[in-house]
Design a protein that fits this description.
The protein is an alpha+beta fold. It has helices spanning 5-24, 131-134; strands at 29-35, 42-48, 52-61, 67-71, 79-82, 89-91, 108-116, 119-127. A 6-stranded mixed beta sheet has the order 5-4-3-7-8-6, with no helix packed on it.
Length: 146
């Protein structure tokens, strides 16, 4: 059987794709253990840096708190996620940054989060519709009789 250039390129591409897939699937974790010499107990926490994507509807959002809740198709009960307005990115479906004042309950969203110990911390929230859909426009018509 004769080897040709196309077969070699295809084989190199397949090997590269497998290597990239394996590299992106890697998970890194940091474990911190602190021990107080006066006390014989120790505590540890694990932070995972791999991100997880989800979709759902916001069920609870109160400005000034550090959490919000999402209801997903797979979970009938709302799930609590933590966020920080300084670290969590809020964008619309077109990728434009959105002010937090437009966020409210009953909005369908996509979100990306990481597990930080026993907490799920949201890193990015993407509104399913552009922000113009959520902005209220009011039109007033005034008629005067002469």
């Amino acid at each position: 059987m004769k080897d040709n250039r196309l077969t070699k390129l295809f084989a190199a591409g397949a090997v590269s794709a497998i290597a990239l897939t394996t590299a992106f699937a890697q998970t890194s974790a940091t474990t911190t253990t602190t021990t107080n010499p006066a006390v014989t107990t120790s505590s540890s926490s694990t932070t995972s840096t791999n991100t997880i994507d989800g979709t759902g509807t916001i069920t609870t959002y109160t400005p000034g708190t550090d959490y919000l809740s999402f209801r997903t198709a797979t979970s009938p009960e709302p799930v609590k996620y933590y966020y920080s307005p300084k670290e969590t990115v809020l964008v619309d479906s077109e990728g434009a940054t959105v002010d937090w004042k437009y966020l409210r309950s009953d909005m369908p969203v996509k979100y990306t989060y990481v597990k930080d110990g026993d907490r799920m911390v949201v890193r990015k929230i993407t509104l399913e519709k552009p922000v113009t859909y959520y902005e209220k426009t009011t039109t007033t018509t005034t008629t005067t009789k002469p």
